[in-house]
Each structure stands twice: as C-alpha cells, then as structure tokens.
Write a structure and sequence with these properties.
The protein has 394 residues and is mostly beta strands. The chain is 15% helix and 47% strand. The chain starts with a helix and ends with a strand.
C-alpha cells in the first residue's frame, strides 16, 4: 500500500518535476481558494449552486436539498479538469532537460512565464448515491495540481498539489416552519465527511530542474492526514402568491440557502504515515460560509430555466468579495425521461463560464469552461480552465 501510494504521488503530483531535487525549497505563495469538491454542472453556471443543488451534488453544495428529493439516484463519475497550457509546459521542460544547454532553456522558460498559472485536476473518480432525505458519497481519488512561476529568490516553480480521498454521509429533513405562508418549504441538513489528504506545497528552483542525474521527487516532503468534519445547511423556499403586492417574486419562485462548511475545522488529528514516518500535517480545510439564492423562471417548451447568485467561501483567509461572487443561469431541457440535459453560463469570480450537459439513457456527459481568480486583490490573474465529466446515472 505504501509503495503504491508513493508511486501515485510521484506520478501525478510531480510529473512536471520528475527530475527535480526538492531540498531547500522556499515557501509557496498561494492566493487561490481550493475547493475540496467541485461539480462540472455547477462550474458551467458560475459555481452558483448552493440553492440549485437538487441533484447528487447536494451532498457537498447543500445537503438540506436532499429533503426535497422524490426518488433515488446513483451517479458514478470520472472527471478531469485542465488548462490548455499545462501539457505544453510539461513538454517544454522535458525538451529542455534533454537539450545540450538545459540551464539556460529552463531559466528562460520560467522567466517567460512569470505570473502565469497552470492547472490540472485529473483524475477525480467517485460515486454518489442520493436518496430522499439522505445520501452517501465515496470519492477514492481527487488529484489536483496548481503550478505558478515566480521569482522570490530566483526563478522557480511553485507546486501546490492535493490527493484527496473522501467518504461522506448526508441527512436532511423538512421542518414545519411558516415564515411567509403555511406552504413554505423549510429544510435543514448536514454532511458528515472523512477526508484523507496528501498535500505537496513546494517551490522548486530553476537550478534544481537542470541538475543532471537528480533524484525523483522526494515524497517525504509531502504532508498528510485524515480529518472528520461536517457541513450544515438551511434551505428555504417561500410560497409567494402569483397575484398581489409581491406577485413578481411569485413569478420568479425564489429559494434561499445558507451553508456552513467545515464546521469543526480541527485540522488532521490522524496521520497514518503512508508517505513518510516524518510527514507533517496539511493546512486546515478552513471554516467557510456560503449564501445562495435561486430564481426558478416559468417553463417554456422543453426548457426549465433558472438563475442563481452565490457568495461563497466567506471566512476563508484568501476571500475577497470578487473571489466569493458567483452568478449563473441554466436552461435545463428534457425531451424524454431518457434524453435530457442543460445549457448554462455565468460569472465565476468575475470571469465568464459556460457549460453543457446531456444524458442519454444511463450515460451522461458534462462539459464546462470557467475562469479562476489566482491573483491578489491588487493584481487579479485569470486561470482559464476546462472540465470534462463522464458518468453513469441510474
């Protein structure tokens, strides 16, 4: 088990620096907000999903929505996200290492890409079983890598990589709470999750990338641990008459969500030392609060349109209003019970997003493109990313 995991970390997290010696690395500057779980469908509509999550994604976006489910759903998925320059960068470094003058070429490569970010989230493998009032999820592998070029103490590549394994159980109930009308829907729910994380956070000097005969990446520098945490959610849909003073809200059919994620935020008390007997503890998940609103618009033809706004990740150390703002719209369509899908668009942290999904029988395909803010509040930087998800949906 230990040898297999070491090989996995080396092969996935550090393919780009497979000949690097990591000794003496500097601190990594990271201004992004890492998400433990992402949904391709949600990213297509700007990741504004807290009040939309009526599907299997409810376990991680808004567990209270499970109280509204009418049937069961088993979703098994393979997902991958990347930016279009990631593989080009890997190829350029490999070519430079095999050249007659690797030091000059790698120094030049890093200098030409100062400030640029490169992203990979391949693969994410998992299964979610969502039922009325409850659900379970098993995500055995979720691998993500962020690379950025900097010059803190010389040309270097900052590597920020994660391998997560997640088990989650959610439960939700409807409560008899009347705020606007006796037909109001008020739901509460929670997700209890266990996460094992391997985290690599290193700054690789350009000179280390050129050393002939350098040893493979030293996994002893990775941190690891397991934590148990919980998300708590409230989901409210007021019943607003379609006539009278507030009839315009009845036309839009609003719903509102409040989700507190990583309530305990206690770090990683368990360390199985699968990577190294000396491995340290990863950074905390960080407690976060998401606020969301959804507006269901009137159906027409085969379309069920909706609009949503979220303020996500409040309380995170890297949170700003821009990084927390998510907006999106979705045109869900249904031709038959076995043939349906969606078109979507939105804004994620100030950058455009677009998505498409189609289900034919048991097979489902989802695509999304979105921009992620990886800069500071003073110097915004967009990282344009693309995600493909293939799944079996029962």
């Amino acid at each position: 088990m230990q040898l297999n995991l070491r090989y996995l970390v080396r092969a996935t997290l550090v393919g780009i620096i497979s000949y690097a010696n990591m000794a003496g690395a500097a601190d990594v500057l990271d201004f992004s907000i890492h998400q433990e779980y992402t949904s391709t469908r949600a990213l297509g509509m700007g990741n504004a999903f807290s009040a939309v999550a009526e599907d299997y994604n409810a376990l991680f976006y808004n567990p209270a929505a499970l109280a509204r489910r009418k049937d069961g759903n088993l979703h098994m998925f393979l997902r991958g996200g990347i930016d279009m320059e990631y593989f080009s960068l890997i190829g350029d470094i490999t070519s430079a290492q095999g050249s007659g003058n690797p030091e000059d070429q790698i120094f030049s490569l890093i200098q030409d890409n100062y400030g640029n970010h490169f992203f990979s989230r391949i693969p994410t493998i998992g299964a979610v079983w969502a039922r009325p009032n409850w659900g379970i999820a098993i995500i055995p592998m979720d691998v993500s890598i962020d690379l950025s070029m900097h010059q803190q103490v010389g040309p270097q590549i900052n590597v920020n990589g994660y391998i997560d394994t997640t088990f989650a159980y959610s439960y939700a109930r409807n409560l008899d709470v009347d705020i606007v009308d006796e037909k109001d829907e008020f739901s509460v729910g929670g997700t209890l999750k266990a996460i094992h994380r391997v985290h690599v956070e290193e700054a690789v000097a350009a000179a280390d990338l050129t050393q002939e005969g350098a040893q493979p990446f030293d996994t002893d520098s990775a941190s690891e641990g397991m934590t148990i945490d919980a998300d708590l959610a409230v989901f409210y849909t007021p019943h607003i008459p379609k006539v009278g003073k507030w009839s315009f809200l009845g036309f839009a059919a609003p719903s509102f969500a409040v989700v507190m994620r990583n309530v305990f935020d206690m770090g990683y008390p368990l360390n199985f030392h699968l990577i190294s007997p000396e491995s340290g503890e990863p950074d905390k998940l960080q407690r976060r609060m998401d606020l969301g609103a959804k507006f269901d618009l009137p159906n027409f033809w085969v379309f069920d349109p909706k609009f949503a706004v979220d303020i996500r990740d409040i309380l995170h150390d890297n949170w700003t209003m821009l990084k927390g703002l998510h907006m999106g719209a979705e045109m869900y369509w249904k031709m038959f019970s076995w043939w349906k899908g969606h078109w979507s668009m939105g804004l994620n942290q100030g950058y455009w997003t677009a998505g498409f999904g189609a289900r034919f029988g048991w097979f489902q395909l989802d695509l999304a493109s979105w921009g992620e803010e990886v800069g500071t509040s003073d110097v915004p930087i967009e990282s344009r990313r693309y995600m493909l998800e293939m799944s079996l949906d029962f």
